[in-house]
Structure formats: structure tokens, C-alpha cells
Amino acid sequence: MILQKELPDNGEFVIVKITKIMPHGAYCRLVEYNTDAYLPIAEVASGWIKNIHEFIKEGQQEVAKTIFVDQAKRAVDVSLKKATTKDKKTKIDDYNFEKRSQGIFNKAIETAGKAGESEAIKKEISKTTPTYTELINDIYEGKDPLSAFNDKQFRQSLYDLVFKTIKPKSYTVSYNMEMRSTDPKFGARKIKEILSEVEKIGVEVLYLGAPHYKLVSTDSSYPKAEAKIKESEKIFERLDTGHAFHMEMAKAQ
Q1: Which residues neighbour 199 within 8 Å (Cβ) at sequence distance 6 or greater?
Q2: What is the pTM (predicted TM-score) of this model?
Q3: How far apart are CA 204 and CA 230, in angstroms?
Q4: Residue 241's pLDDT band (boundaries 50, 70, 90)?
Q5: Which CATH code fits 13-82?
């Protein structure tokens, strides 16, 4: 975050470093918050744990989920077993991009000669944009989050660095599809018409041999790529009139 919170929220995924292992749990350092947390032995892994040292080591860094946060007492409990493989990957990716975005921000401060005004700039920007990731993504996507920011020199420095540093990232979603028509006279022509409409929304259609096809959608985010596949389904439903099509779709492995 641009202005770091003192403690994480309950249910938040965090990066932890094991610092001291006890018989019934372990103490951890919350890397992003520079404070400590406790990992109960029951939250280390699923099932019975006879020897905690078989599951964690001092110095080990992991992704955990906060399960108790007391802001007044500055007490935090975390769980390793409540963080799935997907949760861990997402958190690590987000953490790495946040650090990279912070590096771009700091470089822009340096390039603009604003080192002495760094904290004031952070405070002002954080009023509308809480994280470096959101700031950098908004700039890259052309949303101009600093349009009302008074320091034009820093603003230009940051924007220049974003477009120079960040490379476009794309996500691809593929679905296998089986589609056939019981209409011997017009079925093939109708299938061709439907697939042509699908390609117009940016979904690539690969012919795998009748009646098998693959739909491939690529976009700047996974949800956007997935949404185009969903739009394809609507096209099939809209244009499939009176030709008794049989269509099945399944995500490609």
C-alpha cells in the first residue's frame, strides 16, 4: 500500500516469515507490516501434527491467512492450512507486482528530483488510490488517476516510466467445443455463420475435425478473456434457431 496500514485485516492473505518455533505453534514476522503474528499448531496443516518441525522451519517464508486480528492489542493469528495453492500463487503474484510498482513510483520520485517531498506526495495520492498496483495499472490503462494532482513534474515522470517499464500482459482461456446440426441442407452453412460471428468478438476458432472445435480467447485479464467465451455462448444461443444444433463446451486442459 502507498500508506501502509499498521495491521492487516481479518481474512487477509499475508506473507509471513517463521522466526521462532514453539511446541504448540510458531511466531512469524508479517513481511508487509513489519510486525509479529502467531501461528497456532492447529493452523499449520490439516490433520494431526505430532512434530511441528516436520512441517515448518525457522526462516521459512510462506503465504498465510489472518484468522484473528485485534487492532487495539496489536495481536494477529495466522493460518497456513487455510491458504490454498491458488491463494498462495495469487498473493505472491500480487505482492511481487506491488513491490515492482513501488519501485517504479520511487524511481519517478528520484527522476523528478522530489525525494524531499516523497511522503507528502504519497499522502496526497493515497487519498484516492490506496496501492501502488492500482496506481500503476490505472495509468497503464489510460485512466489518468493523477489528472488533478498539482505536481505536474512528478506526474509526467511517473507516467513516462510506467509506459517505458510495464509490458502488456495477456491471459488466454481455451474451451473445447462439440457442435453438430441435424439439418443436412442448411446445417453446415449455419455453423459457419455462427462461428464467423464468434470470431468478430475476438474469439479464435480452431477446427479440430468435425464436430470438434476449440475456442481461444486472449485479453489483458483472465476475467475479460473468460467473458468473451461467455459471449460466444450467447451468440450460439441467439443464432441457433430451428437447426437442432447439439453443442457442448468444456474448458480445455
Answers
A1: 205
A2: 0.67
A3: 14
A4: low
A5: 2.40.50.140
